[in-house]
Task: inverse folding
């Protein structure tokens, strides 16, 4: 974590007085947990005890829940679609045992489910987890599922380009807001595995 704390711009990271990204009004996530899903708020609170210098760079912004779809949200709030990272839950079986993962890819790409993801899971076929199960197991709203606060059994993998991003926009656990944070902070906090070509 220390390398990340050295900052993405050099020197020690310190929270910006305000984040300017599109027309969303971004506020410090830990000061506005009412804008976060319950497991997301819980996870950020836990991380803040150990990595306060990183969690200080996690922001949340309220949006119209009817505009939560990434493409619609990006257009409405003037956020580059490339900045958004979608999180999808996928699973497959090998010898009767399910293997699963949360997969993060840029919104300008699609998760290579039956290529890179299938190979990573070492299964014959990988598929998206049904909506009802995804919502139940994540305890998050569909359209707001995020890698922050997912149950520990959901291994998080992300396209390696995300780690190099100044800021990315992800779900908050609910449809009525989004989270923004530096890409390398997302990777470090979640312990994500970065994989080249995950998004095709």
Result:
């Amino acid at each position: 974590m220390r390398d990340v704390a050295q900052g993405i711009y050099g020197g020690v990271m310190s929270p910006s007085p305000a984040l300017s990204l599109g027309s969303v009004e971004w506020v410090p996530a830990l000061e506005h947990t009412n804008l976060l899903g319950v497991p997301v708020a819980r996870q950020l609170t836990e991380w803040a005890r150990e990595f306060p210098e990183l969690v200080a760079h996690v922001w949340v912004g309220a949006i119209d829940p009817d505009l939560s779809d990434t493409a619609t949200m990006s257009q409405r709030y003037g956020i580059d679609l490339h900045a958004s990272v979608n999180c999808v839950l996928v699973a497959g079986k090998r010898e009767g045992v399910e293997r699963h993962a949360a997969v993060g890819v840029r919104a300008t790409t699609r998760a290579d489910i039956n290529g890179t993801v299938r190979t990573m899971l070492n299964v014959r076929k990988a598929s998206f987890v049904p909506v009802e199960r995804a919502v139940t197991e994540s305890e998050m709203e569909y359209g707001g599922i995020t890698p922050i606060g997912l149950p520990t059994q959901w291994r998080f993998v992300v396209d390696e380009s995300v780690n190099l991003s100044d800021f990315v926009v992800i779900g908050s656990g609910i449809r009525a807001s989004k989270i923004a944070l530096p890409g390398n902070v997302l990777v470090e906090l979640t312990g994500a595995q970065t994989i080249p070509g995950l998004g095709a």
In short: The domain at 2-195 is CATH 3.90.960.10 (YbaK protein). The helical segments are 2-5, 38-50, 52-55, 70-77, 113-121, 131-138, 183-190. The radius of gyration is 16 Å.
